[in-house]
UniProtKB/TrEMBL annotation:
PANTHER family (UniProt xref): PROTEIN CMSS1
InterPro entries xref list: Cms1, P-loop_NTPase
Species in which this protein is naturally found: Hortaea werneckii
Positions with biased composition (Basic and acidic residues): 120-130
Biased composition (Basic residues): 40-52, 134-144
Protein name: Uncharacterized protein
Region described as Disordered: spans on this chain: 1-70, 111-156
Domain of life assignment: Eukaryota
GO annotations of cellular component type: 90S preribosome; nucleus
Length: 275
């Protein structure tokens, strides 16, 4: 690969025993320690509860060996929109009607990828992108390929959203076409890198992408699609839409006004793909 090609692609962007009568002071002290420990125990129990996978996730669809939730592959645009809305209601139950409407992702924004039958493991991502993104670029961008980057710096045509920094790094390593925006890279460093780099495809966690957009380093002018790494599950059988730490950030990103205005339109269209 030439240096020019590399520029277009971008570079890869954690108590003692006692005898006799009990001592009143010691008993009171012990009771106080137990009382003090109760709130912490409740918080710990709540945290443990939050780390479990949602009860409505079908275990039969979860392939822990490959790290894939196969149910995602069978969802068309409407089912996927319903799935995201269900997760929003679960993890953000206190949203007002107006807030819930603002957070809603319409089915018209989602590209139906249920016909993809080659699996959704990491090594299949490049082929998935080529199938669902390549034809549009060839038609509307005068034959440009996915590996071709827009001239403007910090303005990718594709964003891939991963649930964690390590997962983003894994996707970058496999596809060799992405720039990494991950948690283990300091925000200041990421800002400078993005501002000064051309990139075709960017990979990152939802919050990091939001931070780069808010800063202005990352631009949406040339964006054509956002790909959510939705099928991947971790060791606890949770995907990016199944965790309190990531689902609200995903919805916050996808429901940005500048993106929602471009869902389902002809000119400057941005479509959502769930891998």
């Amino acid at each position: 690969m030439s240096q020019e090609d590399e520029d277009k692609v971008g570079e890869p962007l954690i108590e003692g025993l006692s005898d006799g009568e009990p001592d009143t002071a010691q008993t009171s002290s012990k009771r106080k320690r137990e009382d003090d420990a109760k709130p912490q125990s409740k918080r710990a129990a709540k945290k443990r509860k939050q780390t479990k996978k949602p009860k409505d996730v079908d275990d039969d669809a979860l392939d822990t060996e490959q790290g894939v939730n196969h149910a995602i592959a069978h969802m068309d645009s409407q089912l996927m929109a319903d799935h995201v809305a269900q997760r929003t209601k679960r993890f953000q139950p206190n949203l007002s009607l107006v807030e819930a409407e603002d957070a809603h992702i319409p089915a018209s924004a989602i590209r139906d990828a249920s016909s993809w039958d080659q699996g959704r493991t990491t090594d299949k991502l490049p082929d998935f992108l080529e199938k669902y993104s390549g034809p549009r670029r060839k038609k509307s961008k005068k034959g440009q390929k996915l590996s071709d980057a827009p001239e403007a710096k910090g303005s990718p045509h594709t964003l891939v959203v991963a649930g964690a920094g390590l997962r983003a790094a894994e996707l970058t390593k496999e596809s060799l076409v992405a720039k990494l925006f991950a948690k283990h890279i300091k925000l200041g460093e990421a800002i400078e890198t993005v501002k000064n780099s051309r990139m075709g495809i960017g990979v990152g966690t939802p919050q990091r992408i939001i931070d780069l957009l808010d800063n202005g380093a990352l631009k949406l002018d040339n964006l054509e699609r956002i790909v959510l790494d939705a099928s991947h599950i971790d060791a606890k059988k949770r995907g990016v839409l199944d965790m309190q730490d990531t689902q609200p950030q995903v919805v916050k990103l996808l429901s940005r006004q500048e993106l929602k205005e471009r869902y389902g339109v002809e000119e400057g269209k941005v479509e959502l793909l769930f891998f």
